[in-house]
């Protein structure tokens, strides 16, 4: 009986040893695999972060400055009180005014043509009607002449903008007051030269 107990004890010891020796070798590769997986994940994350960071600046690198279109117009004339931006606004206003004044002038000419045709058709009108038509036609001609003069003045101001001499008097070449040009962008004479012209 003592021999049987000893054999059972030896068998139990061998079984425990085999369990211990079987478990330890399996755990080591699992830990190494886990470490390898963690390192690979970190490396992949680092590559992803570097890639996304490198793409970010390229979206804004080629944006042009907002003032490029204005700067292309060139500097303001030497000795002028006007900035490039102000001269650009004057140009826009003159282009609009020239288009409107040309349309007004064309309408005035069309009205004069209509009155002349009406005058020829009314050969049998009495003296009062004939005089009224003549007065109306002369009035329209005066309006057309005024509109033509204003149109020519605006076109001259535009030419001076193109040449870089806008803001200087056509007669004496002295600077025209900025306040005068802000009120009348098409002015080509300073106050003194304008007064001298009106006294003639």
Automatic annotation (TrEMBL):
- Cite the entry's keywords alphabetically: Metal-binding, Zinc, Zinc-finger
What Gene3D superfamilies does the entry give?
DksA, coiled-coil domain (1.20.120.910)
Zn-finger (dksA C4-type) intervals are 169-193
Compositionally biased, Low complexity: which spans? 12-31, 40-60
Membrane-crossing segments per the record: none
Record-linked InterPro entries: DnaK_N, Znf_DskA_TraR, Znf_DskA_TraR_CS
**Is Nucleotide-binding one of the keywords UniProt gives this record?**
no
Q: Which GO terms describe its molecular function?
A: zinc ion binding
Q: Where is this region: Disordered?
A: 1-83
Q: List, for all copies, the residue spans of the domain called Zinc finger DksA/TraR C4-type.
A: 164-199
Asked whether the UniProt record includes Zinc among its keywords, one would answer yes
Identify the stretch annotated as signal peptide in this record. Answer: none
Instruction: State what protein this is by name.
Output: RNA polymerase-binding transcription factor DksA
Species name for this entry? uncultured Mycobacteriales bacterium
